[in-house]
């Protein structure tokens, strides 16, 4: 059995830290908490779980803080989490099984990172992260903002998931760090350019975001998944700026990096749907359903675009061309994922009346009681 040091950096996390630590403490042989300047009860909560609490002066550098936390670890492997992450019960069980069975020759274990959910609890946004790493390899964090863990060697992709339960506190923090670095004349890495553009877009600075997405793509040094994502986000910016030609060009540019993804197909389907070209829209929404979604993709996945959303739009398209039976089938397919979605419910009522299904059901009910 391997041993695990849990390493975390925190600041003012009194509302989430206990939930996080409670969810993982059975798997952690050592818990390292590095506080970067809390003014609330974060440290008091941490003391319920560990005596390994350290202070680290905040220098606007997440990698520096995480590397300091990793330096305090003493166990075989290091697990890292943020305070607004949790292991659900099923995933904790899988982690405990992994702890008992892991080959000590494994250098890193990746885990899914579930970021967003719909009203039914279905995962709609997910990616992979190197989550459990061998301490003796001394892997390092890179990047002041949106940092990543640079690993190598034998990497195992697990089916364990970490679930994000965050909120929007400090939503301006990363943008402020980037702006400060920019004003100081720092040369951004390609990855920093991409994430700076993301922060600008998220804060609705669409024109400036477009400039940085264009720079990122034109430099040609980005990771392929970031390139594809940047094309979609650049298209969003041009949509907000009222430039449809540039929006389309950005969408099509993603095809330079590989075959179409479900989110691209949904974008194309929506474009034709807006033009009332229902047959073209049907083609693209069908593609969104049929394209396989890679299980171990490291890129951000919008799972809505391969599940309920294209089915719902196919329902609309088939209804518009008078094929109500097919419209009903696709609405039912969407209903398997989103039974309480207002559009799904209203479509069901409308199409059942259109197809005479309500009357048939009532007739059958009367017959069964006769």
Describe the protein.
With 370 residues, the chain is of the alpha/beta class. The protein folds into three domains: 4-164, Spore Coat Polysaccharide Biosynthesis Protein SpsA, Chain A (Alpha-Beta Complex), CATH 3.90.550.10; 171-258, Tetratricopeptide repeat domain (Serine Threonine Protein Phosphatase 5, Tetratricopeptide repeat, Alpha Horseshoe), CATH 1.25.40; 269-370, Alpha Horseshoe (Serine Threonine Protein Phosphatase 5, Tetratricopeptide repeat), CATH 1.25.40. It is 49% helix and 17% strand. It contains 15 helices and eleven strands. The protein has helices at 17-24, 42-46, 62-71, 89-101, 173-183, 190-202, 206-219, 224-240, 244-253, 262-274, 278-290, 308-320, 324-337, 342-355, 357-369; strands at 4-10, 30-35, 53-55, 77-80, 85-86, 108-117, 123-134, 140-142, 148-150, 155-164, 301-302. The strands form two sheets. Strands 1, 2, 3, 4, 5, 6, 7, 10 and 11 form a nine-stranded mixed beta sheet that branches. A two-stranded antiparallel ribbon has the order 8-9. A hairpin with a 5-residue loop joins strand 6 and strand 7 (123-134). Helix 7 (206-219) packs antiparallel against helix 8 (224-240), helix 10 packs antiparallel against helix 11 (278-290) and helix 11 (278-290) runs antiparallel to helix 12 (308-320). The radius of gyration is 24 Å and the shape is globular. The mean pLDDT is 93.
Please sum up the structure shown.
By secondary structure, this protein is α/β, with parallel strands linked by helices. Helices cover 49% and strands 17% of the residues. The protein has three domains: 4-164, Spore Coat Polysaccharide Biosynthesis Protein SpsA, Chain A (Alpha-Beta Complex), CATH 3.90.550; 171-258, Serine Threonine Protein Phosphatase 5, Tetratricopeptide repeat (Alpha Horseshoe); 269-370, Serine Threonine Protein Phosphatase 5, Tetratricopeptide repeat.
């Amino acid at each position: 059995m391997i041993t695990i040091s849990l390493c975390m950096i925190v600041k003012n996390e009194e509302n989430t830290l206990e939930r996080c630590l409670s969810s993982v403490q059975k798997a952690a042989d050592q818990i390292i908490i590095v506080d970067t300047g809390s003014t609330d009860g974060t440290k008091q909560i941490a003391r319920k779980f560990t005596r390994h609490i350290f202070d680290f002066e905040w220098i606007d550098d997440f990698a520096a803080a995480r590397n300091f936390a990793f330096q305090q670890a003493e166990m075989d492997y290091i697990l890292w989490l943020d305070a607004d992450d949790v292991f659900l019960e099923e995933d904790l069980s899988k982690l405990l099984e992994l702890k008992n069975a892991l080959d000590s020759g494994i250098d890193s274990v990746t885990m899914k990172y579930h970021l967003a959910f719909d009203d039914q609890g279905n995962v709609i946004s997910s990616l992979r992260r190197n989550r459990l790493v061998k301490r003796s390899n001394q892997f390092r964090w890179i990047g002041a903002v949106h940092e990543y863990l640079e690993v190598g060697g034998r990497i195992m992709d697990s089916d364990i998931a970490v679930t994000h339960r965050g909120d929007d506190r400090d939503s301006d923090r990363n943008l402020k760090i980037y702006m400060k670095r920019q004003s100081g004349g720092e040369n951004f890495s390609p990855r920093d350019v991409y994430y700076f553009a993301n922060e600008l877009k998220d804060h609705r600075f669409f024109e400036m975001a477009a400039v940085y997405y264009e720079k990122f793509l034109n430099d040609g040094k980005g990771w392929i998944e970031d390139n594809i994502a940047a094309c979609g986000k650049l298209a969003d910016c041009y949509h907000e700026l009222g430039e449809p030609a540039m929006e389309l060009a950005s969408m099509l540019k993603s095809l330079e990096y590989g075959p179409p993804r479900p989110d691209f197909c949904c974008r194309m389907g929506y474009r034709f749907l807006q033009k009332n070209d229902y047959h073209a829209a049907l083609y693209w929404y069908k593609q969104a359903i049929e394209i396989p979604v890679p299980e171990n993709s490291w890129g951000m996945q919008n799972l809505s675009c391969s599940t309920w959303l294209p089915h719902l739009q196919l329902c609309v398209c088939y209804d518009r061309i008078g094929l109500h039976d097919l419209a009903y089938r696709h609405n039912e397919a969407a209903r398997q994922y989103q039974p309480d979605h207002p559009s799904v419910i209203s479509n069901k009522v409308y199409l059942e009346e259109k197809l005479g299904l309500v009357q048939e059901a009532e007739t059958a009910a009367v017959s069964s009681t006769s």
